[in-house]
Every structure is written in structure tokens, then in C-alpha cells.
TrEMBL record:
GO terms for molecular function: endonuclease activity. Keywords: DNA recombination, DNA-binding, Endonuclease, Hydrolase, Metal-binding, Nuclease, Transposition, Zinc. It comes from the Bacteria. In the C-terminal section; belongs to the transposase 35 family. In the N-terminal section; belongs to the transposase 2 family. Residues 1-44 form the Transposase putative helix-turn-helix domain. Residues 195-305 form the Probable transposase IS891/IS1136/IS1341 domain. Residues 317-382 form the Cas12f1-like TNB domain. The keyword Mitochondrion does not apply. This is RNA-guided endonuclease InsQ/TnpB family protein. InterPro entries: Cas12f1-like_TNB (IPR010095), RNA-guided_DNA_endo/Transpos (IPR051399), Transposase (IPR001959), Transposase_put_HTH (IPR021027).
Length: 421
């Protein structure tokens, strides 16, 4: 399993200037190589039955597509024409081309489901904010970290704030330097071979189904609820006020850049608070249950076709499920995704479909007279589907072990402002 450890670094002024220069040169080279690929595409593609009224490419048709190997072979020529590229470590330039190659392949080649990524774009000034050393702590590596000191080739030694030590059992893979709104960070990717294997299905003792929503962040099949935070909604007015201040500044001035960074810090704080909240919920669930059932939601489509798009994106259900899966893998807990079709409409007691509008928050079954909260009924249905998928039998209450409902205060999130600052 690949893990990423992120640490803040303290740079000297000359080191920061050098890194900013690296990012700008890498951005220009990225755009030039992307333009090479687009030129080859336009010179070798045209309509069969018509010509453009504006322009048509003329000249020799390139014999070779400018792929990664072709463009990496031209790095020596680039350094001769532009000597400033000699100051950049060669592995970093190759990784920059590999990043372009991946973006191009996502656009040209469809994935297993037949979908393709968006067309690669030219990067504006300041849009490229990271560069990667592909090897760390080995003989030919350009990056070495030891006792809180990061040594980068052609940059020098950098002090690292090691708030959490790197385990000795990890195999270090790559080192990425990232520029964020509040400073510079180093992201160390490592492989952990000590990940526990998931528990056998027969040994599962506790299971739960969770239904995410906007009234409550999630409701479990045991009746527990976690209140929604609405982190972006709470900061929305403050963010809008700061954006109005930015609109009054002269574009490109020092005050404009200062206000721009202030807005970026607000977005960063919102992101960190949301992620911290998701991690706390994920760890709470993984500690209590051996199997967790969730809906296989297409959040992008939900947000696209809903008037509540901003609230849906603020809840960030996809990010939460991704975090929950990562935490579960490290703890050997099973995560089962089920089809969300009719989980809110079907009765968890007798299985009869009970149509109801979104505004109706209580499930009332006319056949078995079951009266239950709408979200809890959906969570029980999700759990039943998951247990059937893995070959287990659900109890009458919808789970393997029925627990007493717990008040929201037991989760520790009622009225608490989460922050990393």
C-alpha cells in the first residue's frame, strides 16, 4: 500500500527564489511540449470530405509522434539552447514530461468504462505548483532525508518540520515539493508492506450501513446520526467579502497578489477542516465495525442535476468514501458498495416499495406499519444489500448486531469547530 507523508519545510530566501524559477521553467517546457503534440495532431488529421475555410497546415508531415521518449531525448538540445535549464535536476525535468504524457494518455485513450479525460490545457503563470524527485534515499537519488534535514540536488539542505516520524519499515519511493498558499511542503511517497489482510467474512461480528445526506451528514443502520458541518456555507459570506476586495484591486499589483493569497488561505482552511472531519468519522466507524456498507453514488451527476449542488459539493461525500476506504484498508475492515437504487423508497421491514417525496423525512409502511426515519430506513436497506452481496444473513433488525441508538453528542461533533490551525 502506498502512503504519503506531508511535512512543512523551511526555506532560505535564495532557495525559495530558485524553486520559483524551477517551477516557471518547468511550466514553459510543459507548454512547449504540449504544443508540439497539438501541432503533430493538427498536421496529421483533417476531414476527408472538406477543407477549412480559415487555414490548413502545409509542409512535411512529421514522421514520429512526439511522445515521452522523443521529447525526453530533446532535453539535451533544450539545455544547449536555454542554459538556465542546466540548473534543474535532470530527473525533475523527466518527471515533468511524464506528467504531460499521463495527461495526454487520459485524453486519447479511454479507460475500462470507455470514458476519456479532458483535453490537456496550457498552464498559466503560477499554475504549476509542484515538481518531483522520482528517487529518494538511494545511491542515484536527487533527494535524501535524514534526521529532519532534506537534501535536494542543486538546491541544498532544507529544514523539515517532522511532526510525525517516518516508520523504519517503509520503503521510500518519491519526493514531491509542493507550493501551497501557506508555504512549501514536501510529500514523501512510501510503500508499506505491513498492511493487515481483511478479516475473513465468516469472522465478521459487527456490520453497519450508512446513508449520507444533507439533513444529517450520515445516518447509520443502528440509528446513530452525525450532524452535517456545512463548512463552506459558514465561510461563504466571509469569502465573498474578500473576493469583492480583490475585485477592487489593480490586477497584477502587490496588493492584488496579497489579497489573492488571502483568499487561497480561506479555501485551504475550508478544505483542511472538511478533510479533518471526514477522517474523524472514518476512524470512528472503523473502530466500531468489521463491515461497513455504503452507497455507490455518482456525486458528480447528483450535483449537476440538482438545485442543492453547492450543498452536495460542500458535504464532499466522494472524498469521505475515499478516505473511509483508505482507513479501512489499513485496519483490515471490509467496505462494500451497493447500488443506491430505491434504498430510500423500499421498506426495510417487509420490502414493499413506499414512494415518497424528498421533503418527506419519515418512512411509514402501510403494509407492516413500520414507522422509521427515512435515512435510517435507507441505511438498513444498504446494509441488507451489502450482507446479501458478501453472502451473510441479516438479522430481523437489518444488521448482524443490533445496537441501541446513540445520541449525536456521543460522536463528539455537535457544535465543534474543526480546524488544523
Amino acid at each position: 500500500m502506498l502512503l504519503t507523508y506531508q511535512y512543512k519545510i523551511k526555506l532560505l530566501p535564495e532557495q525559495e527564489i530558485m524553486m520559483m524559477q524551477w517551477l516557471e521553467l518547468l511550466r514553459r517546457h510543459y507548454n512547449y511540449c504540449l504544443g508540439q503534440r497539438f501541432d503533430w495532431l493538427s498536421n496529421t488529421r483533417c476531414s476527408i470530405d472538406r477543407c477549412s475555410l480559415v487555414s490548413e497546415p502545409i509542409g512535411e508531415i512529421p514522421s514520429q509522434f512526439p511522445n515521452y521518449n522523443f521529447q525526453a531525448g530533446l532535453l539535451k538540445q533544450t539545455k544547449e539552447l536555454f542554459p538556465e535549464y542546466k540548473d534543474i535536476y535532470h530527473d525533475v525535468q523527466q518527471q515533468n514530461l511524464k506528467r504531460l504524457d499521463k495527461a495526454w494518455d487520459r485524453w486519447i485513450k479511454p479507460d475500462k468504462s470507455g470514458k476519456r479525460g479532458g483535453r490537456p490545457r496550457f498552464k498559466k503563470v503560477g499554475e504549476l505548483r509542484s515538481f518531483t524527485f522520482p528517487r529518494i534515499n538511494c545511491a542515484k537519488a536527487g533527494a535524501h532525508i535524514n534526521h529532519g534535514i532534506l537534501k535536494l540536488s542543486k538546491i541544498g539542505e532544507i529544514s523539515v518540520i517532522v511532526h510525525r516520524s517516518l516508520p523504519d519499515s517503509l520503503v521510500l519511493k518519491t519526493c514531491t515539493i509542493v507550493k501551497k498558499a501557506d508555504g512549501w511542503y514536501v510529500c514523501i511517497s512510501a510503500e508499506d508492506e505491513t498492511v493487515p489482510t481483511p478479516k475473513p467474512i465468516d469472522t465478521i461480528k459487527t456490520a453497519v450501513g450508512i446513508d449520507v445526506g444533507l439533513k444529517e451528514f450520515l445516518t447509520t443502520s443502528d440509528g446513530e446520526v452525525v450532524p452535517i458541518q456545512q463548512i463552506y456555507r459558514k465561510a461563504q459570506n466571509h469569502l465573498a467579502r474578500q473576493q469583492r476586495f480583490l475585485a477592487r484591486q489593480e490586477k497584477g499589483s502587490n496588493s492584488y497578489k496579497k489579497q489573492q493569497n488571502k483568499i487561497a488561505r480561506i479555501h485551504q482552511r475550508i478544505q483542511r477542516q472538511r478533510k479533518d472531519f471526514h477522517y474523524q468519522i472514518a476512524h470512528q466507524l472503523v473502530r466500531e465495525y468489521d463491515l461497513i456498507a455504503v452507497e455507490d453514488l455518482s456525486v458528480k451527476n447528483l450535483a449537476r442535476n440538482s438545485k442543492l449542488a453547492l450543498s452536495i459539493l460542500d458535504a464532499a461525500w466522494s472524498q469521505f468514501i475515499t478516505i473511509l476506504e483508505a482507513v479501512a484498508v489499513k485496519c483490515g475492515v471490509h467496505i462494500v458498495k451497493v447500488n443506491p437504487h430505491n434504498t430510500s423508497q423500499d421498506c426495510s421491514g417487509c420490502g414493499v416499495k413506499v414512494p415518497k417525496a424528498l421533503s418527506v423525512r419519515t418512512h411509514c409502511c402501510p403494509k407492516c406499519n413500520l414507522v422509521l426515519d427515512r435515512d435510517e430506513n435507507a441505511a438498513i436497506n444498504i446494509l441488507i444489500k451489502a450482507l446479501q452481496a458478501v453472502g451473510l444473513i441479516a438479522s430481523a433488525g437489518g444488521g448482524l448486531v443490533r445496537r441501541q441508538p446513540v445520541k449525536p453528542e456521543a460522536w463528539g461533533f455537535q457544535g465543534v469547530q474543526l480546524s488544523l490551525f
